[in-house]
User: What shape does this take?
Amino acid sequence: MLKSASDGTSTAQSQPGGGLERWAERHLRYLMLAPTVLILLALTIFPSLYMFYAAVHRISPNPDLPWEFVGAGNFARLLSDAQFHVALRNTIVFTVVAVTAEFLLGLGLALLLDKFIRRLTFLKTVLMIPMMLPPIAVAITWKLIYEPQFGVLNEIMYRLGLPLQAWAGDVNLAMFSIIVADVWQWTPFIFLLMLAGLASLPVEPYEAAALDGASSWRQFWDLTIPFLKPVIAIALLLRVMDALRLFDLVFILTGGGPADRTKVLSLYIYQVAYRFADPGYAAAISLFVLFVTIVLSTWFMKRMRLAD
Amino acid sequence: MVRKLFLTLAAAASALAIGGVAWADITVLVPSGSEGDGLRAAAADYAKMKGTKVETVQAPYANVFEQGANAGATKSGVFDIVLMDDPWIPFFAENGHLEDLTPYFKKAGLEGPDNDFLSKSLAICRNPYNSGPYVCLPYVGNAQMFFYDAAKYKEAGVDAPKTWDDVLKASKKLTEDGGGRYFGYVFRGGQGNPVVADFMPIFWSYGADLFNADRSKVTIDTPEGAAAMKTFMALRDVSPKGVESYNANEVGTALAAGTSASSINWPNWVATFEDPSQSKMVGKISYTAIPAGTKPGSSEIGHWTMGIMSASKNKQEAFDFMLWATSPEQIKISAERGNPPVRASVFTDPELTKQEKFRHYPVLMEAIQASTPRPRHPKWPEIENAFGIELSKAVAGTITPEEALKNSQAAVEQITGLK
Assistant: This one.
């Protein structure tokens, strides 16, 4: 009864003109949510639905020609499109190699700094810088570093008496060069998450393990890794999703070449949509990438038991 | 319904994107760089003189095509004029994005553009090429030239290169003597537009072309094509390591820094080569026509042209501005601002030709008159991409030159539906 008396509804009812206030109280939450919902609808839901709609049509760049419904035709094209297969293969290679390298380096650096040089906060800040730079600035910087004739990397090679390399221009080195640039930029992201994870580890299990005579290596495998598992899963998930969308580095450094060795799915989607003016097919490829990302994420979350 | 909603949203988004210029009488989409800067300066002059507010929206090269195509496809009308690279003209014209200029000329009491324009400059502005109605007016007179270090070539036993054999002879010697730090030749080997742009003049100079005369057959994999490819591969072997990723900037820098002796490039690089703050080769780089193979050499034409968008709501104002901006007086001012002209009277104007920085004008005028347009096809961007991939593979050595020609033939046949 007392609770009811202090209830806002009861108070509103007891006052004259309470109808408006009551209405506001009932609907205010919807009003407050409305801008977010509208923005979400305009920027996410509508474009996503529209992408499905576009993916089942052949769209002419001529606005006077009607869109032709092709059903699954655009998706069927994926099976026989050699350029799509090349882009898919390159994207997989890039994602697996870059994310693995970033994870190993990020974890290693975090362990190193957490255990041995904990007080060097300045070093931690410096390590974060690449992650904070705009991707386009990173790409242009690495383009200058890799430049075969005037780049700093070949100048070092020359002074060391080593053979000069074309780096981004060599078929055998181009993907490696892009991976190195990506690892440089995104290892700090893994490092940051791992460092946060390490800082939250409980002390007691380690003390108990030390009393039982467990080596540092055993403690790492049997305690640190299991405790860090959720952080590791989140870090890998975010990096894999991001790596599947790689664009800036490839666009600036190689343009997908040489010999198609660095053409990735995002670059191909951009070309199909904007250079070849075929947005229907580009939408179909985008949906494929979305599908792969969702399947991969779901599988990964289940595997790491994050979904629970 | 959904489509209409999308088009409305796209138009609204485009309008928002150029929100700051919505109050202008005419809006012009231009590329970044000297071409766009020149037209922006002209637009400011026009506003002062005529009272018509002309706003320019600048975008990087590739984005000009994308934004223009998007505006055309959505009929948004956000741009009244688009400054187009000439190989884009068939795409814009054949997809209904460009206005036929014939009625506007008639209304102005003109038959068409006057005869002071170079004939090759006018030919590209008609669609179909050189026969259809005018869909644009030429503004910047680009055509490739052959740039070379005359002193180095002389050292290598070639006075002035007339043929690709001359170029190879000098380049081989210079690269051999260069010890990996100096090269006889350099080219744009980057996949796509760059490698295609630098291969086409060689292709044409051996009598090859992508299509036959009436565009009914793809003709890449031919003996003429093989001869051109052989020369191209020989030039690759005397070029710096890494040309597989080179674009115009890398090639221009190599020539300006004096680390490569020769190349094909665009005339707007002359200003850089003659600028002591950017070049070690001031006064040392010579300019000549594209060397001959088995046939006379031919430059690739790369004009910037102005067309009126079909969805424009200010078409007459747009036409009046275009006519003014391409007049002899304005083209001369544009030339002084660094853009190669498109008019004979400007190319031969003694006020300009007596200046050192315009000493390449006779060669450039000759190059434009002997130029060839890239194949006029609405699917040119896709064709260029496919051809560029195979050329890139050949340059990188992952496939043989013969395979590159065969694969290109098949890819272009598939894109165009021709056999």
